[in-house]
Write a structure and sequence with these properties.
Elements: H1 4-46, H2 52-102, H3 104-120, H4 145-155
Helix pairs in contact: 1-2, 1-4, 2-4
């Protein structure tokens, strides 16, 4: 079962992807609306407002404008969803962030290593417990949900 932070981090990633998709949809709708306006204006400049082509293009402009407004509404909804998830994360993360900044995570990890050493001390007295990292001296927290959530939360600021 995933933790609250893992769930919120995943939801935030999905919300950010959804917002990006809606932003692209708004740009497409704006372009379609502008193209319809240009076509109508061009037809209008060569004829009258009662010309069937102008009337048809005017109706198209209204449809494109409605689509643009719908796309903007969807974008605003996705931005609101992202903001709500960020607010929940900001509520949940401070305690976790304090654990990282204070070094509590490192202390807990050291305690875990000591427990493993103790568990095997009788059966394998010469066994050593060590941590192998991709880059010695660097801590890789990419797989940690709290760290990913912090990165997602602050990446846009």
């Amino acid at each position: 079962m995933s933790s609250t932070i893992e769930t919120l981090e995943r939801e935030l990633g999905e919300a950010q992807t959804e917002r990006e998709t809606e932003q692209r949809a708004v740009v497409r709708a704006e372009n379609a609306h502008e193209a319809a306006c240009s076509a109508r204006d061009e037809a209008w400049s060569g004829g009258s407002a009662n010309d069937p082509e102008v009337e048809e293009l005017t109706a198209l402009v209204y449809r494109r404008r409605r689509q643009l407004y719908d796309a903007i509404d969807r974008l605003k909804a996705s931005e609101g969803k992202e903001r709500r998830i960020k607010s929940r994360l900001m509520y949940v993360l401070p305690a976790e962030r304090r654990r990282y900044l204070s070094g509590t995570v490192d202390e807990e990890f050291e305690d875990l290593l000591e427990a493993v050493r103790h568990a095997y001390s009788e059966t394998l007295p010469d066994a050593q417990v060590s941590v192998v990292t991709e880059k010695p001296g660097e801590v890789d927290l990419r797989g940690d949900a709290t760290w990913r959530a912090l990165e997602r939360l602050y990446s846009g600021t």
